[in-house]
Amino acid sequence: MIRQCLHLTTSPLLLLLLIALSSIGTVVAKSDGPKIASIQLETEPSMPFYFENSDTVLFLRLDTGEVYQSFDGGVEWKVLGKDHETEGETAGLANGAVMIQAHPYDNQKAYILGRHGVHWVTTDQGKTWREFEVPAAPSMFNEPLRFHGEDSGKVIFQGERCSAFACVETSYYTRNNFETVKPMRDTARGCMWAVATPGFADSTTEHAEEIRDRVLCIVHGLKNPFASAYRLVYSDSFFEDDQDGIEAKLNEGRPVAGIINAAARTKYIVAAAKSQGTDELAMFVTDDAITWHRAEFGNHKIEESAYTVLEGTNYSIEVDVMNTDRSTNMGVLFTSNSNGTYFTRNIEHTNRDMSGLVDFEKIAGVQGIVLVNVVDNWEEIENDPKADRKVISKISFDDGRTFQSLKVKDKDLHLHSVTAFENIGRVFSSPAPGIVMGVGNTGTHLKSYTKDGDLYVSDDAGVTWRLALEKPHKYEIGNKGAIIMAIKDNDKPTKKIQYSINHGKDWETAELDREIIPYFLTTTPDSTSLKFMLVGYVEDPADWYIYAIDFEGLHERECKDSDFENWPARLDENGEPDCLMGHKQFYRRRKSDANCFITETMFKTPKPEFKSCKCTAEDFECDYNFVRSEDRKECVPATILKAPEGTCKNDDDTFKGPSGWRLIPGNVCTRDGAVELDKEIDRPCKDALKTPSGDSKAVSSTANYIETEMFGEFFYLERAGSSRGEDETIIMRTTDGKLYVTHDHGKSWTHELKDVKIQQIAPHRYLNDRAFFLTSGKKQYYTINRAESFDAFSAPAEVNPSGLTLGYHEEFKDWMIWTGPGECSHGECPKVSFISKHRGDDWEILLRAVEKCEFMAREDRKDSGSLIFCDQHEGEKVDGQRMLVTSNDFFATSTTPLTNIIDFATMAEFIIIATRNPEKENSLKVDASVNGVEFADAEFPYNLEVPVQLAYTVLDSSTHSVFLHVTANNKMDQSYGSIIKSNSNGTSYVLSLNDVNRNNGGYVDFEKLPGLEGVALANVVSNTKNVEKGSEKKLTSMITHNDGSQWTLIPPPAKDSEGKPYSCGSDGKPTDKCSLHLHGYTERRDPRDSFGSASAIGLLFGVGNVGESLGSKSEASTFFSSDGGISWKEVKKGNYMWKFGDQGSVLVLVEELKPTRDIYFSTDEGDTWEKYQFSEKEVTVQSLSTVPSGTSKNFLIWGKETGSSKLVTINLDFSGLRDRTCNLDEDTGESEDYYLWEPKHPLQEGNCLFGHVEQYHRKKPSSHCWNDWSEAHVHRISHNCTCTEEDYECDYNYERQTDGSCALVPGLLKPNAIDYCRENPEAIEYWEPTGYRRIPLTTCQGGKNLDRWVSRPCPSHEEEYQRKHGPSGAVIFFAIIVPITIAVAAGYWVYTRWDGKFGQIRLGDGGAQSFVTSRGDSPFITIPVAIIAGTVAAVKVLPLLVMSLWRSVTGYVRIPGRRGPRPYATRDAFAARRGDYTHVVDDEDELLGDDEFEDEEGDERN
């Protein structure tokens, strides 16, 4: 309901006077007040806005979807599509709107977005509206409309298309203002135009043709759906020529993963990236959409949701960076140089709020004037965040170089700013030149808005201030400063409005027709109109009122030239016009006492005039690769300068080099007779970059002796891709509890926490910079900055003696779970889990009598932020039956989905729970969940010949399916079992490989190769019948290239490393008598080692032999493959350890546990090997390590000097081998230094693997350069292939035949396919089983359709079935075979293109421990992971560093968890370090299940 009224405020006396004056012919027609009209609404008006330079205003009623429009500033209103039949309107507009958006650069255009794909546009300020359709709803996560900064007809529409399973963000574009609309592409975080602002268009005229149609989009990773893999891609053809686009070269000519946001600011585009394993952001900036640079903030760390890009200028970016804990909300204000690359600190302790808003505003229209609020008592707030903060206001007149107090005469003035703003629009200023207003108080600091606030005004851009009105007011400025309106704002009803026509010196009063509580006051964005709109409500929230207040009648005279002044926008300390950016700025503005209004040119925004100045030092900035010195007086090199070729023959020479200064681009100062800081200067050659020699002599070694008996554990705290710094940090604990730290990869070590004995190191599972150092007492220590400093907290209990002590949260970095022994008077004390949300500052009890509790949060697991799983004893008794207890509210309430459990483990999206089988004595069964809410029994294949399931090992789930090892024999030295593979929700399994080797500790000889989809190696026991009789195992190595669907022997090389043939007569093809066999995971000294590295795709090492079966390690040779295991060659006789450097540019070998002084290295993918002597004395090498990502040029040898007890670490530095970075052309893929390598299957043509062809950059072996890339990178998915038999595997109850087909297991019935309908009531159809199912990883399209031949309608859905597609209709791609809801993060796109590489999990069947690893953007984690058996809980802890002489019962190496990258010691295979890790137990009697079942069997025998 709308009620309208109009009244004119006049006094009777003045009315009589006006009548009398008119009767004698005087031309005076003033009114004594504004005209006021109002309407009443039943709900709050939303999204009000004026068309700039007009009196046309719109707002939206959210409850009805109605759009209200007025052409006279709010006097008369109509509902579009309802009240009037205006040209172009349609009936759907009457109640179909969800938002209104004005075009930011074209004041004629606005858009109304509807609910159901129907939208409207106006190109004439609302006079007419035109309907257009886009088949998507407006995006809820991205800005629905993105505008072009030069051509207002170009608009990107960002929407979402939803299915029953998920919503997909997608973008459309128009080049003619939605006359036509075309789809562009699916996105992750939306798209934007490169030319996104008019300022960008003006500053890039030289690139106009190249970037005119360029679009930038944040899209999913090629193989990973999570934010850590998001990419920034661009296209100049709306992705028509190339569907994926070209990745933007953000960092030194290389793409960057983890793009979380991109935005345009004036003449810049800013992109933020966050790598996995860190909370630190990297910011990248471009001013031409072609060349990008990383923005440098000195030593300040930028975190997600902890920085704010503020309103900048056309020559700099303003960023406020939080520099304290989030609870204190204070920041540092930075200003960039002109290309946005180097930021300098302007002012510290800026006042922020929890949402990231900062008390900062640039004065509109005036260059260089900035208002900020800072926290005066910042030290007190940092010590006590709950203390009252004392905020003070500061102003700068020189672009933030210096700040001073605001003054009312001799008193300091403090104003409420953005964080406490009580209106809409700008806070202090408007386009009205020089008029600045605010609510605040004088005194020592800012006080209460309501109780102490008054309205203050300045008409000289903040130089001087005066009291305008007592008490707080909402205020607006109109007619370019000629009229100021205000209404009291103290949360009390009022009917009085006040206005001033002389810059706030004097005020008049008018009254509304009723008292209201003001909600907001606004006018046209350019502050040119004489009309204002006031919105308020009475105490009943159902009664809202909109007032249109028109001051046009106050004066009738139009301002003349004599009514204007030439006002200088900035004054120096002497009161003279000041220079900035090489000019002085002036405005022609109405004098404050002029008795006139500006009506003829009312809607023209004031424009400044400029006068040039001579260049001074302030007109220069630091050149690229230079930064300000500490005293800000010089520009010093940010990197070592390179001398020109032919110069610097001696260190005493000099060369002509840059001064470090440059004139700020856009600065218009005159150079004649002025300062010239940018002239070249003489620089000393001794400070120039020395070119590496490029030969083997350039390899260096640095030895350090550690005074201890044995190394204990060590971890790399590797910098993630978005982290700043150059360090390569390792933390190491010795067996006597000493902590050593190196920041230069072992070239030097320091002893830290000298008075503390460290029992364990527990690196943070998700953040590389963090690690915790656990002691035997309550006081514990940690670092959050890669061991630069250390802090302490008090633990709620002692360290867990038999399991994981600390658990970490994936999203909330300071949330932790501590599990340790509770207090009791006698006997075994039950364990208690505690939670802290503040990094150990305080603790609360989660649950008592537990084995473990874990956070279950995952980015793709809906509503899992507070989800916690606990393994608890029933009745809180130590000997009580164990049950799975879950909660989403920290156990204020809880559920118990499963009882009588043995353990649970998480692996990528899967949660696997082992429980006792109630139907089979002494046997286990598996339950699975994806969403953490619904659980289902796992269906094992009937041809799985394991009558009593004694233990499980969860091997891998990196390819949308779980590999599970089911133990068939767990007797000492006889263990083996079958590997089965699940469907996409972990509940239905098929047999993959029989008789796979398992050791006494429960670990399995199975390993996925890092970075290669579907490639795995396993060792099988070839003589199981003899083993059952007590014979020694004979192992045979097998390999799969299609994710376990088919296994083959490993092809042997034709000749050995000496060119001799093998005795078994190898011809390069594997046979039962002659194939390659490799020692696997169960024989590794260090469980973090792997065959390959995720950063060196396709490069593999292994130790083994060629023959009929696997021989002894003492007689083994070292083999190498460069094509992902398809072919191999012997590179060395003997047992060598290996590591990969610089993504495979350097391969290093060193002999294991034999005295040596030499290593071998290759720089040509293993074709040739050079020897390097690293020590004069022989060293027995116990381990060889490098950064987990395999991207460093440094390696570290850990060993003992032969013949002595001295422990030594030796750093090997290869950085001097090459003198340049390889040239990469990401656009074309190949270049002089790179070729594109495609993984392939040895038995398939066309390099198709899992339905697509992948391409990776590989450095050419002949190129003498460094990759210098921090992460492995897929160049592109070349194309999807047509489906073949290799894209299918045998379905449940079917098995592979000798001819390769799948047939029903004899004696079994086909699965009852109609069960799917019962389990999924909304399903329309089901498919008759064919014996085949698609491999979850495949993305093939078309071709052979082996899994869906005949579809049937589900009962009660026959009509829908016929309507949908009939017998051959669309496939329900996400079919779920058992009653469990799959948690899908990104819909069909994610399912078909994500390989889910998140590693492997180990639930140990020993000593209540588990072993879990994971890998986010990196392909695979290779450690077999979950072992479950018996009755003792398996808990996630790190496996013991299995190096002889280093093991101890209490020592273990903790490696971080699932999402990484995370720090751990040596395993290249965990390139980005994603994983959970668990304790590898020395005491095998503690193994889960094995000994208990044996005891029971023994009892029966007795």
Q: What's the N-to-C terminus distance?
A: 90 Å
Please report the number of helical segments.
10
Give the overall shape, derived from the CA principal axes. Answer: globular
Number of strands: 104
> If you compute it from the alpha carbons, what radius of gyration comes out, rounded to the nearest whole angstrom?
36 Å
Strand percentage lies at 35-45%
What structural category characterises the helix and strand content? mainly beta
Instruction: Summarize the biggest pleated sheet.
Output: 8 strands, antiparallel
Spatially, the strands of the biggest sheet line up as 1-2-41-40-39-38-37-36
Low-confidence stretches: 1-30, 1366-1502
| Fraction in helix | under 10%
What is the arithmetic mean of pLDDT?
A: 82
InterPro entries: Sortilin_C (IPR031777), Sortilin_N (IPR031778), VPS10 (IPR006581), VPS10-sortilin (IPR050310), WD40/YVTN_repeat-like_dom_sf (IPR015943)
Cytoplasmic side: 1391-1422
Signal peptide: 1-29
BNR repeats: 68-78, 120-130, 395-404, 456-466, 498-508, 740-750, 1119-1129, 1160-1171
Kindly list the characteristics that best describe this protein:
8-stranded antiparallel sheet; 5% helix; Wheat Germ Agglutinin (Isolectin 2), domain 1; mainly beta; disordered N terminus; 1502 residues
Would you give an account of this structure?
Among the domains are: 295-452, no CATH class; 561-612, no CATH class; 617-687, Wheat Germ Agglutinin (Isolectin 2), domain 1 (2-Layer Sandwich), CATH 3.30.60; 1285-1393, no CATH class. By secondary structure, it is mostly beta strands. The strands form 26 sheets. An eight-stranded antiparallel β-sheet has the order 1-2-41-40-39-38-37-36, with no helix packed on it. Strands 28-29-30-31-32-33-34-35 form an eight-stranded antiparallel β-sheet, with no helix packed on it. Helices cover 5% and strands 36% of the residues. The model is unreliable at 1-30 and 1366-1502 (pLDDT under 50). A hairpin with a 6-residue loop joins strand 70 (924-929) and strand 71 (936-937). It has ten helices and 104 strands. The longest helix has 12 residues, at 12-23.
